[in-house]
Amino acid sequence: MKQRNRTHIFRSKAASVFAAACLWALFAAPAQGALLLSINPANGVANAGSTGNFFDVLLTNSGTSSVGIAGFSYGLTVGATDFVFTGATTASPAYIFTGDSFADDFLTGDIRTSADGQTVTASDLTSSGSAVSIGANAVLSLGRVAFSILSGAPTGPITITFDSGPGTSLSDEFGSGVAIDTVTGGTVTVSNTGGAIPEPGTIVLMMLALPAVAFLRKRA
């Protein structure tokens, strides 16, 4: 009987110690990073008929601990045929793999893996295979995306969304996926549909022609 009581007391104490250890691990473990994927500017403006427009894709670590990233990929889509993605490169401030980019070393900075159109896909990884440490509250770029707005495009916002699924992902140096906590797209507002601006020579000719038209009207 005494042996059973001792065994019961031992198990009770062991259970208490185990529960306390679990609570300590839960509250004492370092907080993980919280990764946000977004575009900047989130609400851009572009004219109809314009080329060379761009925005940057940003990765933000809003957590309190560092996160290692060795590769990324993403896809972006718009629903308007007047909007055409034309490229994606490493040429953006604070690019995540600056100095250790596969695209910079072998693809002259081109990270796009799709043709011109309403969808763009891009990816890059470190040449060394090592992970880049993203510190707490750090913001780094995953590339600069270029686009054009066709002539005659109607005014108003065009929504840009990140593709869901494995096409938009992060990985560490072991090739394991790193969770993206928040994904936020954006918009580009077409500001006008104005036609081409006359060249200076054309304007001068028009100004010279106005007096002649007025003279002819008087004689008529």
Q: Could you characterize what this model shows?
A:
With 220 residues, the protein is an alpha+beta fold. It has two domains: 1-29; 31-193, Immunoglobulin-like, CATH 2.60.40.680. The chain contains three helices and 14 strands. It has helices at 2-28, 102-106, 200-219, and strands spanning 35-40, 43-46, 53-61, 67-69, 71-78, 83-89, 119-125, 132-134, 139-149, 156-162, 169-171, 177-178, 182-183, 186-190. Strands 2, 5, 7, 10, 11, 12 and 14 form a seven-stranded mixed β-sheet that branches. It has a five-stranded mixed β-sheet with strand order 6-9-3-1-13, with no helix packed on it. Strands 4-8 form a two-stranded antiparallel ribbon. It is globular, with a radius of gyration of 29 Å. The termini are far apart. Mean pLDDT is 82; it is low at 1-31 and 194-210.
Q: Please provide the count of β strands.
A: 14
- Any idea of the CATH topology of the largest domain? Immunoglobulin-like
What's the number of structural domains?
Answer: 2
How much helix, percentage-wise, in residues? Answer: 10-25%
Global Rg? 29 Å
Could you say which structural class the secondary elements and strand pairing correspond to?
Answer: alpha+beta
Instruction: Estimate the global geometry from the Cα principal axes.
Output: globular
Poorly predicted runs: 1-31, 194-210
- CATH hierarchy class name of the largest domain: Mainly Beta
